[in-house]
Amino acid sequence: MTRIIAGRAGGQRLKSVPGSATRPTTDRVKESLFARLDAWGMCEGARVLDLFAGSGALGLEAASRGAATVTLVERAAVAAAVCRENATLVAASCPDTKITTVQSAVAGYLGRAAHHRWDLVLADPPYPLDNDELARTLSRLAGRLGPGGVIAVERSTRTEEPAWPRGLRRFEDGEHGETRLWFLEADDHAPGASDAD
């Protein structure tokens, strides 16, 4: 069982998604991820999007740390139901954060939310998702970040670095056991980046 590490809901235990289809982020990786995000001031007051949300643990950690809005996007019905349960648990300690769960494929959600902008995007796709499909999904986020916005992508260390889509660039990464975190930002100098939507 995972838990909220810090913030308003710190210590709150979260329900896990039953079965083996969902791979939860370890507390160690989560601590490393949010230590960086906090150092950059990414959570407080942020509009947060948690893609491939699983149990919602990453987005709800951001909620606990002061995000203004958190949207959890999860395709599987069982996992989306767990997201909703966990969101209810965390919302009790974070009444100022609007938490929404959307049961949808990520690409479909991003296509429907064409005019939304986010300050922080957390993406923990299934490891079997290949890099080409991941790049196509992330391409829908080009031009969709607020000023100073960040995308954090969690992948296996056994997976090569993806070819990041036009309009986004990697500015930092870090390895934590079998997990690598990639951090992306808008690449405003990429050809056609200003046209992305």
TrEMBL record:
InterPro entries: DNA_methylase_N6_adenine_CS (IPR002052), RNA_MeTrfase_RsmD (IPR004398), SAM-dependent_MTases_sf (IPR029063). Keywords: Methyltransferase, Transferase. It holds the Pfam family Cons_hypoth95. One of its GO terms (biological process) is rRNA methylation. One of its GO terms (molecular function) is nucleic acid binding. Residues 1-25 are annotated as: Disordered. Transmembrane segments: none annotated. This is 16S rRNA (Guanine966-N2)-methyltransferase. It comes from Kocuria marina subsp. indica. The lineage of its organism: Bacteria, Bacillati, Actinomycetota, Actinomycetes, Micrococcales.
